[in-house]
Amino acid sequence: MTESKRIYLASPHMGGLEEQFIKEAFDSNWIAPLGPHVDLFEKELAQKVGIKHAAALSSGTAAIHLALKYLGIKRGDKVFCSTLTFAASCYPILYEGAEPVFIDSEPETWNMSPVALKKAFEFYADKGILPKAVIVVNLYGQSADMDRIGQTCSYYKVPIIEDSAEALGAKYKGKYSGTLGYFGIYSFNGNKIITTSGGGMLVSDDEAAIRKVRFWATQARDEARHYQHSELGYNYRMSNILAGIGRGQLRVLDERIRQKKHIYEMYKRGLSMVEDIELMPVAEYGEPNYWLTALTLKQGSRIKPLDIILELDKHNIESRPIWKPMHLQPVFKECVFFSHNDSGKSVSEDLFDRGVCLPSDTKMTDDDVNRVMEIITSMFQ
What we know:
2 domains; 15 strands; 15% strand; globular; Aspartate Aminotransferase, domain 1; alpha/beta; four-stranded antiparallel sheet
């Protein structure tokens, strides 16, 4: 390996069948936001994760938006959401004029804290207010503790939207991530474990919900000979070409998970000698898809996350900080936040301060992974 070779955090990795499906779309002239690949991609993904229905959309953000819309979210409503996530998880709350309430992480999984969630429910229930939905994010490819979260949400009769944008193929107690809430969403952005360039999927066992979402996603056009619209619609449908890419990608999902896990296990072995480094915990209740391997540095370490990021960048290697929590973002500065801890710094803020996402690209060779580890370990010598 040469110094000039770029090592990416996570990038598209084609399997070979994608071109065949794209050629089929061109040969049949299905160059449109609908078509046979869209229908088959929905069917095949639903079968893969063990759910009844799926709607292929333009992005995971669009999927969350239409899930919220179907659940009747409107101006002034509260929606609870994981704080340690990408902004796309919560932007759709604002699209509908509702108010995000951010829930801290737990240290055991970095995902939504059942403790903080319960605090939030009790606080608002005392005021006679309940959220209209809870968006639970499965961070970096690992499922949140859905039994504990689900128990609280079931008690208050509030539906869950499971944001599995990063966790396609991961499992929680034998069930696929994204199938444990009323709605589940997946993202096929270019850096995800499989990609359609850009795209997403909304899944549910509720056939009527998915049928309605497809209607809204195609500009809410009524069944009439002329163009007639009785509701507000959106241009959110996935194209037939992109769905063809998705069908090819879905066939290599299991192999991509194996490759991601291999990278994680190499990091786990190779970085175990560095006392200041701890990898993101893997929960006993499930199996992640290992989308990104992330680490934290011990409190008081002389090496800081930015030091690692900058040093890797010198060698043309991409890494990045842990997500900056949403409750610390300027756009959400007025939003309410519930911490896992009773006092002091929140778990999510602490993870942001001490964390780094390591390159986890499935095209990395063992030599590439070793090179990353050599650079990092040399910083602590």
